[in-house]
UniProtKB/TrEMBL annotation:
Highest taxon listed in the record's lineage: Bacteria
Family the entry assigns: Belongs to the peptidase S41A family.
Coiled coil, from the record: 462-489
Domain annotation PDZ: ranges: 80-163
Full protein name: S41 family peptidase
Database matches in PROSITE patterns: PDZ
Keyword Membrane among UniProt keywords: no
Amino acid sequence: MKNLKLLLLTFVVALTSYGFTSYKNDFFEIAKQIEIFTNLYKEVNMNYVDQVNPAELMNTAIEAMLNDLDPYTVYWNEQEIQNARIRNSGSYTGIGAEISSTPEAIVIKNLIKGSPADQSGLKIGDRIIKIGDIEVKNYNEDAGELLKGSPNSEVILQLKRNETLKTITLKRGVIKEKAVPHSELLEGKTGYIVLSEFTRTASSEVIEALQDLKEKGATQIILDLRNNPGGLLSEAVNVSNIFIEKGTLITFTKSAIEKYNSTYTTQKKAIDTEIPVAVLINENSASASEIVSGSIQDLDRGVIIGSRSYGKGLVQRPKKLNYGTQAKITISRYYTPSGRCIQALDYRDGESIRKDESEYTEFKTRNGRSVYDGGGVNPDIEVNIEKESKLIKALKKENLIFDFSIDYINRTKELNIENFETNGKIVEEFRDYIKKVGFKYESDTDKKIDELEKIATSEEYFSSIENSIKDLQKQLDEEKQKAFQKDTEILKKLITENVLRKLGYDDAVYTYYTEEGEVIKEAISVLNSTNNYRKILGYE
């Protein structure tokens, strides 16, 4: 009996050891590295020549570690956790303005009509330089947080408007942002619905808009997901469910950890599985937007129009840490019904690398149409006006299109919002403006030429190839000028959007889209032709 017990015990120990060998190895390596880091952290704090801030030092270490992974795996403090909850809920306490921060001021980029910011007299383009007794330029943290506060509390703002100083007293309020900020009936039969973000009310707002439009006579639908950054995965499934029958696979996830592998199918009876649908996307349509557009494309439920989407096929999950903090960690990739993952970037050594088209894999839609992974959702019909070149992205990053638009309004009298549209003369003024402010577009080729020049200098070849490098730079500058000309139409569109938003809120921009927008015109044209619509989807 003793020998039998010993044999069983040996077997259990051996089995346990075998099953947990990898865990033991991982645990030992983790414990070892934590011990090394703890000792280093202690020695630096105790012995460094200057005084250090332990919290800042640790935050730097955490951020550097996570930066080596992907941009979506992040550490959140308590305030950032609250901000995430607010984004998903669609309501918050604040002033009702979209802002951007500069070292000197907080810039009002957009206003919600009727919000506290709007009612107080704030205008798009205003630069807030002081909040209460605190000057923005002297505030080391996110000054935008100072605008938040309890409902009905007041805050005094000092701002610059066209170089004129103004003081405004603003009363904060509860802001409810609509997931569907705009819907209307076009040409008597085309329902147009803008979905700006996948908050908790996204699907219910789309259903409400759809039913209202159908009552008014809509027999075909345009769902506009352009510039929609995503949101809740559950709401992406629910929005797809509006047009797709119950029990249909919308997306599934794969992970290195089996418990994170999930499938997501439609759970409710669809609102309308027959009405023709066109979905609009662009490079800023990401995540949940790509789940909706990807599933509708894979299931041949509607036509996708615009430009290739952003390409975010990664899923994050929050993990609670100590002291009310969290880590949002990428745990899996999601796939559309055909089996493709639309993730467009790989992350190596902290750098993002766009996948090459040669790496794409072909998949088939329900009707046998070819679709591809690795590069976002590619539209069935591409509209060039929605493509943004690197030049346009650089101009937007520097806020130069926005700043010029505000400057143009300030120095132009009697602008007519009813028929304003950017013409060639205004584009030329924009070119003069960016020269005046010193904007220089540095392309990847510019960087390589600079690198070549430095290497040639270090190897003492520069004097012999200097003229060749100058000729190469001259040719590149000429090509960049051609690129600017090529981007004239999208520049006109972006300047027009900014001017109209300043003069008439987002409503004026949506009116411009529906009356002049090439993408919506293309969508209506496709929906109006039953044969063409069915042919694109592989039914004929």
